[in-house]
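Running co-folding for 1-deoxynojirimycin.
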Amino acid sequence: MPDTESFTEHLLSQMTLDEKIGQLNQITVGPDFDPDMLRQGKVGSILNGSSGVLTEQGARTTTRAETANYLQQLALQSRLKIPLIFGRDVIHGHRTVFPIPLAQAAAFDPALAEEAASVAAREASAEGVHWTFAPAVDIARDPRWGRVAEGFGEDPTLASRMAAAVVRGFQGEDLSRPDTLVACAKHYAGYGAAEGGRDYENSEISEPTLRDIYLPPFESAVRAGVGTLMSAFVDLNGTPATANRHLLTDILRGEWGFDGFVVSDWDSVAELIQHGVAEDRAEAARIALHAGVDMDMVSRAYLETLAASVRDGKVPVDEIDEAVRRVLRIKHRAGLFSHPYADPQRAAHSQPTAESRQLARRFARQCMVLLKNEDGLLPLQGFRRILVTGNFAHARGELFGTWTLDGRAEDAVPLSEALRQAAPRDVELMFETHVDLALHVAHHADAVVLVLGEHPSRSGENANVSDLTLPAGQAEFVEAMAALGKPTVLVVFAGRPLALTRQVAQVHALLYAWHPGIEGGAALAEILFGYEAPSGRLPITFPRATGQVPIYYNHKNSGRPIVADGAFRTRYIDLPSGPLYPFGYGLTYTTFRYNNLRVSDATLRNRITVSAEITNTGPRAGREVVQLYVRDLVGSLTRPVRELKDFQAVDLRPGETRKVTFTITEDMLAFTRADGTRGVEPGNFHVWIVPHSQGGLRGEFAL
Ligand code: NOJ
């Protein structure tokens, strides 16, 4: 095979204008699909292909692989035989459903996310998928937004690590291998800042905040070699992301050197008309292409208008050539010209295996966050009869969460079944989901486990809520149950942080299980009965009340910071200040002590090291996520009160002490100034090594 650049140039030189525009057109295949479009080279990509289409011979394809192969052979009948690239939303697993991305971030273990993404790539590619629309790396500070479930939380450092890991997991070492997927960092950019948490709303983000908070995970994905990006639906500072040349060309290509392609989001090229920046479809296509959107997802505005715009001299053919070059480059890197077809043998074996399930279980355990554990109620010990109640008591597919096109409920053991299998022999589990009956049964129980929370349909795309408390009726149920005075554990399944202030006061233990995926039931059982300990930490701040959002740990100090609650300080008069639980927070079944913070030098020249000793002071082995935060005390622009710069997980036996050392380099302290330049400014810094974003051991250094 010739190298990618000479291959694409050679191919490009043979293409007609229509064939070029065809490569920039992505369609879905429905009942009205026209096979000749593929034969004529009018389609470059197909997304979320259905599992069956009617062939010209009158038969119906049955499996996804068979459908992909049927469509591919039509495309390969085109003059230049350019293969289609099949895209699909493989967001947190394919058949083996892993925890939702927000939960994955809670594990603070990018290597685990990388492994999960490589399993998803293996399974999906076997079915003819070449390209996934993941990872979503949108920073979100407002959990009302339903898509908070799909990203990695509020912190740019954590999200950047996750982004790079997931890209590596999907794409592997060698993208041309048939068991990898091209990744797509989305939704570029500022999508998570939608006003009021309403999906598709506009966002206003200052350039320094855009560059220091929202863009780093995208840059990290680019540095990890991501093949594609998706432009967001959002109107960013008055220029819709799909029309935003500053984002798509100046920053992405100019500053970061990205050479893959950008796909629009669904219909977002044509939506430039609704945004009010284009008069008609032709203008919308021209603006998007010029901004740097190479492929048009489903709107067909490119297909229908670009040729005429070129002929009228409104679109330079160079712009089309450049977009085509990028698409062909990725198709070539993905190995599509040498293996365009799915292997039916592999497809037949694309299902969860013992190993993929084991990984999913470990991931689910590691992402669950223990938020409260009064008197060590968890793990459950010494209780003979335990009532398990709530809308998740028999959950199966509900454990998967949003965006699981290929997960099958029958692959998951129902929660009740998983708990039964794991319960010690002398424990009697009683299941009752009817609220009134559950109150009766509770009288006969020694302890109560409430498994409540959000159905997957309550988070994800456009599933925004105006109220972050538990879904309708659940708060009353917790209250009624708690009034009985039994030892009560609340397990919450959700796609977002919920405001659980009332429940925290009512129950003895609170475990946040997110939507944990295919092995979520078993993972929960292992944690409840103490075979394993939870070790997740919050990747996003938990508010006390909806009215507190946006609330995030890396905020600015203001001129009137909260020292103690008092008048004329940044506060609400009807709430204590601060979050219900801070970013980075999470308990486990043992405790840790932090000692001896040491900073290697008083002044940073190139680098310094900061260390602390962490001791397991509790009764059992445990995993602690040790976090490094920095504060730049004085800057030409105001600086966040803390910024996470690094983290390390340590596994410690009871009584064991480990010294944890972090390195801080000068570039880690850089930020974007008012004039848009990025750099460091001399001055004094605070540094913390801590279990979460508040309090803890503090040191100092100067730059
Ligand atoms: C719209 C969503 O915003 C995006 O995340 C997804 O990848 C595409 N639809 C394709 O399904």
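Result summary
The longest helix spans residues 110-126.
The mean pLDDT is 96.
Job closed.
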